[in-house]
Design a protein that fits this description.
heterodimer, A: mainly alpha, 1% strand, B: alpha/beta, Rossmann fold, 2 domains
Chain lengths: 342, 440
């Protein structure tokens, strides 16, 4: 029975074709040469996007693969950010590797604690509980001013050392777009490979089984709650690492990161790209960050525009941009085949 | 008969005198510093770039602080129109590029970088939020970009975070209006013994309360706080807070509400006649003075207007011209953010022109920053400037509310101008150490 259900869902494993692999390679080459051919600000936007990749793929392990919608993932981004800032400001830590390890550890611990309580529930109850935890943390960050800087937040005044190397004399934009960019790109690729392995592994297939039909999965011998908790913890680790990477770009962290609207942005990115696809949230994050940058300069009503876009996507292309692209390609193939037959 | 001087003796004496003079003159000449020809070196003027000068603005265009941010932007636009009509800065037309600050620190930092790196802005103006101010101050130093703040500072709480600023020019200290308010409370309400505070639950509100009580207790040691209320920023229902204030029966109610919530609070307080029963010190409410209507603000409430009061008995032609223009364009009276915004642009222009006069070519950002330190220029509220530690220098206007038949909102009479030195501690001292030096 257990084997059956795994076989059933294993048919959905994403992207094993060579065309996709070649697209990935081309994109990777573009990412590699971007700092030398693209304008510096575009490279900066790409860097921001790279930092968001672990966040959205971590989030989507819960939503897309386990069927749990978290509305409080800003909590783990904040843990990653505050951990790094705290280490740099209070303990003089400059090694970014230490920051990443600690951010991941603390996020895992927080994810375990929060997850333990949240995974008992599903659907709206799960979403509300995660939101509540995030808002509790928001209040904590605001009220414990002496520890967290309150609403003013905490800034960092030094540069991190990457693999033990210091770049203090470099101009900040050169550091970000020429050095840190490649570091984050490398981390992102490693995390992507790991996540791909997770989602295509036996564990990932079990998660999908839990998502598709938890009762059936339970009857098949899968410990549904255990799988949900594992997914929650992994998701928290990814999001925390994303936060730790992102704070070196923003150089400042404020409690607003844990406010529900920020978690809403993570949900938005994922829905925009399509949560049923491994690459969906990544494309969603890219489109969202680029669009946000373009529209924000044009109008203060940019959220309205993006909101309408999301509304249209949910109504007309429920699978997100990836789902739309897949439907379109199917339609083209179908038309081509009918043309060949005729 | 007197002794006759022989001719030979006279010749001897005269000869010795001449020789002595010659030696003395020779020695003096030899010891004199070499004579230097003073040649006036005037820099050969180099052509000024022809392309428009891009200046970035990051301020609140939406959200609770938007009325203030938009007022500042309007003042900036009027300044740009006037400056361009007069030929620009050294002949360069000024172009404003505007971004919204309301999306939080992360996105505001992104906007700062976009304006600097992509749009090529020579300086960034604006900023109201304390958290954005903290981030921008650091960013300006890291990016070597000029940042002339309207309202944001680089203070964390009451303490400075960037001691040796080069490129960041923050606004006046956050707690200035609270200090000025406490001084005037001691002056106008000498019998106050108990104080209740209602301030926003965020850094500005908490810093203002801390500074207010610190100064007031120094000037009037017998004063005690009897109630502290901390509604969240954005609150619009103060009925329970008003009931709590009424129950505390303080001699004075202090608040640092500064935007639309000051108007809402005063309206709701009027329903129970709160400020008819107790003295009031709304130390920053003058930021929305035209909305403080006479029907809900009684006379005798101490109101702080920051650096700007729309009318002044002494008169100031630039203020009158600006108020007229602002009324013509927008049909309302300007508020203090207009003065902060206008000043930053005036200071920038003057600094560019001073640096150009020295160098003879369009100055670098560092050269402009050097000229900004210690500068003094005419702004809407009078002469204003920058201190050597890059902080703004300006005087604040506070006074007691009065019902003037010419206006539908309250005006201030008597109006006090509190000098900068009385509100802001010197850079080498911390706030509380400075207050300890005061005498009660």
């Amino acid at each position: 029975m257990k084997i059956d259900i795994i076989k059933e869902v294993s048919t959905i494993i994403p992207f094993k074709n060579t065309r996709f692999t070649s697209i990935l390679i081309i994109l990777f080459i573009i990412a590699l040469i971007a700092p030398y051919v693209a304008p510096p600000f575009l490279t900066y936007i790409l860097l921001t996007f790279f930092c968001y990749v672990p966040i959205v793929i971590g989030f989507n392990l819960l939503l897309g693969y386990t069927g749990l919608l978290s509305f409080g993932h800003g909590l783990f981004v904040a843990i990653g950010m505050y951990t790094s800032v705290y280490l740099m400001r209070n303990y003089g830590v400059t090694s970014i590797e230490i920051m990443l390890i600690l951010a991941a550890t603390l996020s895992a611990l927080a994810g375990f604690g929060v997850g333990l309580l949240c995974i008992r529930y599903v659907r709206i109850f799960f979403a509300m509980l995660t939101l509540a935890f995030s808002m509790v943390f928001y209040s904590f960050l605001l009220k414990f001013y002496w520890l967290t800087g309150g609403d003013e937040g905490l800034g960092i005044y030094t540069r991190p050392a990457l693999l033990g190397m210091k770049f203090d004399t470099l101009y900040i934009m050169d550091f970000l777009t020429k050095v840190y960019y490649y570091y984050v790109l490398a981390i992102m690729v490693i995390l992507l490979i790991f996540m791909y392995r997770i989602t295509t592994s036996h564990f990932g297939i079990c998660l999908r089984a839990v998502k598709e039909n938890p009762r059936k999965a339970d009857e098949s011998g899968l410990n549904v709650k255990k799988y949900r908790l594992y997914a929650f913890v992994i998701s928290a680790i990814y999001t925390g690492i994303g936060g730790a990477l992102l704070v070196q770009v923003t150089r400042h962290v404020v409690p607003a990161i844990t406010y529900w609207t920020y978690s809403g942005e993570i949900v938005f990115m994922t829905l925009l790209g399509g949560f049923n696809y491994f690459t969906g949230p990544i494309i969603g994050a890219f489109v969202y960050i680029v669009l946000r940058d373009l529209i924000m300069s044009l109008t203060i009503y940019w959220r309205v525009i993006l909101g309408v876009a999301l509304l249209l996507i949910v109504i007309f292309v429920p699978g997100g941009l990836m789902g739309g692209a897949k439907s379109l390609s199917k339609l083209i193939i179908k038309k081509r085949e009918s043309y060949e037959f005729s | 008969m007197g002794e006759k001087v022989a001719r030979r003796d006279w010749i001897k004496v005269a000869g010795a005198g001449i020789v002595g003079l010659a030696i003395g003159a020779g020695a003096t000449y030899g010891l004199m510093p070499p004579r230097v020809e003073r040649i006036e070196v005037k820099p050969t003027p180099k052509p000024i770039p022809k392309e428009p000068l891009r200046l970035g603005v990051v301020t609140f265009l939406s959200g609770i602080p938007a009325p203030s941010g938009i007022a500042g932007l309007r003042a900036a636009e009027i300044w740009v129109d006037w400056t361009n009509a007069a030929g620009g800065i050294l002949g360069r037309k000024v172009e404003l590029l505007v971004e919204d600050e309301s999306e939080g620190v992360e996105k505001s930092v992104e906007r700062f970088k976009k304006l600097t790196v992509e749009k090529g802005c020579e300086a960034i103006f604006g900023t109201e939020s304390t958290s954005t101010g903290l981030a921008f101050g650091k960013l300006a130093e890291e990016m070597q970009q000029l940042w002339l703040s309207w309202d944001g500072t680089t203070q964390q709480g009451l303490e400075e975070t960037i001691p040796n600023k080069k490129f960041s020019f923050p606004s006046i200290y956050n707690e200035a209006e609270a200090v000025a308010g406490a001084v005037l409370v001691a002056k106008y309400f000498p019998n106050v013994k108990t104080v209740a505070g209602i301030n926003d639950d965020y850094s500005y509100g908490r810093n203002c309360w801390e500074a207010f009580m610190s100064v007031l207790k120094t000037l009037r040691p017998e004063v005690v706080p009897v109630k502290e209320l901390w509604p969240k920023l954005g609150e619009s229902d103060f009925t329970s807070h008003i009931a709590a204030l009424d129950a505390a029966k303080p001699d004075l109610i202090m608040s640092s509400f500064w935007a639309g919530h000051a108007t809402i609070f005063l309206k709701q307080a009027a329903a129970v006649g709160l400020f008819k029963k107790y003295k009031g010190a709304m130390v920053t409410a003058g930021g929305v003075l035209p909305t403080l209507k006479k029907e809900f603000v009684p006379e005798g409430v101490l109101i702080g207007c920051n650096s700007w009061y729309f009318e002044h008995p002494l008169g100031w032609p630039l203020r009158d011209k600006f108020v007229k223009e602002y009324l013509r364009r927008y049909g309302e009276y300007p508020v203090y953010e207009c003065d902060h915004a206008f000043f930053t642009f005036q200071a920038y222009k003057a600094a560019v022109e001073k640096a150009y006069a020295l160098k003879g070519e369009w100055p670098t950002k560092e050269e402009i920053a050097n000229q900004l330190r210690g500068i003094k220029v005419p702004s809407l509220s009078g002469y204003r400037g920058y201190r050597e530690d890059n902080y703004q220098i300006c005087n604040f206007f506070l006074g007691l509310s009065k019902h003037d038949p010419r206006y539908d909102f309250v005006t201030l009479d008597p109006l006090d101008m509190v000098p900068f030195e009385l509100m802001c501690h010197p850079p080498e001292m911390k706030f509380h150490d400075w207050v300890k030096t005061w005498k009660s």
